[in-house]
Amino acid sequence: MEPAALARLLDLPQGEEALRARLGREGHPGLNGALEAYLKRLAAPKAVLKALAALKVGAVVTGQQAGLLGGPALTFYKAHTALSLAGRVGAAGVFWVASQDHDVEEVRHLHLLLDEEVRTLSLPLPPLPSGRIPLAPYREALVAFLGPWAREERVAYALEGQTLSEFFARVLLAFLGERGLIPFDPMAEELAPLFREALERELSDPLASAEAINQEAARIRALGGKPPLGRKPGATNLFLETDARRLLHYSEGSFTDGVRRYSKKELLEILRADPARLTPAAGLRPVLQDLVLPTAGFVVGPNEFRYVAELSRVYALYGLPMPALFLRMQGVVLEPPIRRILERYALDPWAFVDRGEEAFLEAARGALEGFREVESALAHLQKEVEALRERARALEPTLDRPFRRFGARLKGEGERLLKKVLRARLAKDATLLHHLERLKRHLRPFGLPQERVYPFPMYALRHGNALARLQEAPLEGRAVIPL
Predict the structure, then answer these.
(1) N or C: which end of the chain has fewer CB within 10 A?
(2) Are strands 235-241 and 182-184 parallel, antiparallel or unpaired?
(3) Who's near 2: CB < 8 A, 6+ residues apart?
(4) pTM over 0.70
(5) What is the pLDDT of residues 208-235, one digit of tens each?
(6) Distance CA 85, CA 333 (A)
(7) What is residue 355's three-state secondary structure?
(8) Which residues have a Cβ under 8 Å from the Cβ of 295 and sit 6 or more positions away?
(9) Angle 243-139-184 (CA atoms, 0-180°, nearest 5)?
(10) Are the beta carbons of 410 and 388 closer than 8 angstroms?
């Protein structure tokens, strides 16, 4: 189910009016002091420290896993939407660094487009939360891969990070700090203690939030939706980090991570000694986030929207209002050579992102010598069949249906043959083939949307106007970012 339909079905809070109605809620009493200490340790720009004052008004929050060099460009698009919304209402834009996630396959690759070649760095990261992975063993490989960019001031500053998540946070500060973006790493030593009280409460009734999720899932199914979250019997919404990060289960007064059992007392002792070792699952994380931050708005992607939509009962369990939900902006960056290719064929960049070669072939029809004649002849044939259908129907009305089916088959077969002609001509036309391959590398690398592969800093390092163009982009919907 699409986010818009789901929002209507569940009557979820959305829009600027809902955002403004949620301003003014207080966050954790120690939030500002802890954030200031964290940001000063990272040598954050003055604009970010100044933005802390806006937390008194509220926060527009977004987040993403700690990918290399900021991860795919959608990270910056989330941040842009959050910052733009925050600016409208006088709130702070906060970026939740998902440092507790241990799915390293999502963050260990860095793809760059250099000299018209897609190059990839894949780091052999251990299966740990990114907040626990030291950057030092991988710094040399990153520097070598980035080449001259590693010496650029902003990148060199980011590479001073001690962990993978700190490297990510520093990238955000380096490229978006002047806009006042506040990174928030829940595993940072200054910030992790803010979650003790909420985690203690979850341990006191460890199945309540899981049951709340299952109840809402049942309601969504009854309404015709497909809830993404669900908790099996005994499963909690908490992970414990030992030699790995494992989901805790609870029964008969004790917990187990599948390896050993823990009493509530033992887990409380772990929590007090190192609060970063107990972390929330997806069904609890946004709520814990909002117990600490004065969240008024939450910017998410389409998939995140679906699971956050399932958490209304968990929010109610903790006595929190659900934040106003916003879908992030989608973006496609057009560097000058790619913009010229698209203009040559009058091809919409989003059409190519969505449909790839098929969209290019349709746009390139006019450039293929002789193709118009074949296309025109087929169209003429279809008109003749339609005229024949009219004459046959006048003679015998029962012939209308078989002639209509014949016309539909002719049209479908004609379109299939036209595509074969297009592809055959494309294979023989070096210029067209070159343009298509170039569009694929830039706009659909690995067959994926550009925003899911290349990091936005790649464009900012190549083009001095990239960050300004991003700031000018709309805060939601699909945006083209010309450089």
Answers:
(1) N
(2) unpaired
(3) 302
(4) yes
(5) 999 999 999 999 999 888 899 999 999 9
(6) 21
(7) helix
(8) 22, 25, 27, 58, 59, 60, 61, 94, 289, 323
(9) 65
(10) no
pLDDT value of residue 404? 81
22 backbone dihedrals φ, ψ, rounded to 5°: -105, 5
Strand partners, 111: 120
d(CA 150, CA 18): 43
The predicted-structure confidence for 55-79, as pLDDT tens digits, reads as follows 999 999 999 999 999 999 999 999 9
Contact 281, 237 (CB under 8 A): yes
* CA–CA distances in Å: residue 94 to residues 171, 339, 353: 14, 33, 29
Contacting residues for 208 by C-beta, under 8 A, at least 6 apart: 317
pLDDT band at residue 478 under the 50/70/90 scheme = very high
**Cα 420 → chain centroid:** 36
For residues 95-122, average pLDDT: 95
Helix (H) or strand (E) holding 351: helix 349-355
DSSP 468: H
Distance of alpha carbon 43 from alpha carbon 154, whole angstroms? 12
- In what helix (H) or strand (E) does residue 166 lie, and over which residues does it extend? helix 164-176
SS3 112: strand
Contact assessment for residue 157 and residue 174, using Cβ atoms and an 8 Å cutoff = yes
Q: Are 363 and 347 in contact (CB under 8 A)?
A: yes
| H or E stretch at 294 | none
Report how far apart, in Å, the C-alpha atoms of 193 and of each of 76, 92, 189, 240, 272 are: 28, 22, 7, 16, 8
Specify the pairing of strand 254-256 against strand 295-300: unpaired
Please give the Cα distance from 291 to 294 (Å, whole number).
Answer: 7
Q: How far apart are CA 80 and CA 381, in angstroms?
A: 52
Structure tokens at 5: 């339909």
Please, what is the angle between helix 371-395 and helix 400-428, to 10°? 170
Tens of pLDDT, residues 130-178: 999 999 999 999 999 999 999 999 999 999 999 999 999 999 999 999 9
- SS3 letters for 169-204? HHHHHHHHHHHCCEEECCCCCCCHHHHHHHHHHHHH
CA–CA distance, 78 with 67 (Å, rounded to integer): 14
Q: Are strands 117-122 and 59-65 parallel, antiparallel or unpaired?
A: unpaired
Nearest Cα to 328, choosing from 309, 300, 303, 295? 300
β-pair partners for 5: none
Q: What number is the average pLDDT over the span 410-439?
A: 75
* 3-state SS assignment for residue 332: strand
Exposed/middle/buried for residue 136 (C-beta within 10 Å: 0-12, 13-18, 19+): exposed
Look up residue 24 and give its two tokens. Answer: 């003014």
Helix axes 285-292, 196-204, angle to 10 degrees: 130
Q: Which two tokens stand for residue 299?
A: 């910017």
Q: Do the Cβ atoms of 129 and 97 come closer than 8 Å?
A: no
